[in-house]
Amino acid sequence: MKIAVLGSGMVGNTIATKLVQLGHQVMMGSRTAKSAAGQEWLCSVGGKAQIGTFADAAALGESVFDCTNGANSLTALRAVGANNLRGKVLINVGNPLDFSKGMPTLTVCNTDSLGEQLQREFPEALVVKALNTVNCEVMVKPSLVPGDHNLFICGNDQGAKAKVNRWLCDWFGWKSENIIDLGDISGARGMEMWMPIWLRLYGKIGHPHFNLRLSIGSK
Ligand SMILES: NC(=O)c1ccc[n+]([C@@H]2O[C@H](COP(=O)([O-])OP(=O)(O)OC[C@H]3O[C@@H](n4cnc5c(N)ncnc54)[C@H](OP(=O)(O)O)[C@@H]3O)[C@@H](O)[C@H]2O)c1
User: Ligand 1 pocket, 17 CB below 6 A?
Assistant: First the structure.
């Protein structure tokens, strides 16, 4: 499959590398066509992929992983343009975190979310929020955390969510029954507001290979 991975940070890197290993045709997008981080990544996968601008990558991709910096994702996606996203599944992985004032805070929360902002800005894209609640190594290798543990997805389009569920299982090794559908894209509020707890747990545990497991009792 032709897949765009927008973002040259550790998340884009990890997801794009896994997709290349699986044999997909991947283009990593950055603000500039030949970013240093993009070129370094391309070398790391033995040149078996492409790099370009955010728009170049999204134009090539049949589906798009948005792994841009969450506080700047709207800017990054505006550079992509609506035409390059129309009708495509847009998997929004970022968290809208502002690190400028010490302990990170969310740039949007409670009554809105990054996932919703993107869906409003690009009404013809099929935005699915996914993977943002776990570390990037866990995203593509859930077995780093022992036992069953959960992932959330949400989005307005059932078909898009079904595809994402299948990709997460087939490509990354998640169990379908461990992926919890939180409903429409407003479910992104809770998924993004998980971040303050995740960051606290990271400080306490000392490494990022952990996740939550939902235990549901009877009524
Ligand atoms: N680290 C994890 O394990 C993890 C787990 C879950 C979710 N997340 C979230 O995933 C997102 C990506 O994280 P990351 O650490 O991989 O990368 P990051 O450093 O947060 O973001 C890197 C990407 O954002 C782009 N970017 C930065 N500032 C921009 C701006 N002003 N305008 C447009 N684009 C801009 C960069 O473009 P260039 O390529 O041009 O530099 C780069 O592609 C974040 O929101 C993070 O909170 C991270």
Answer: no
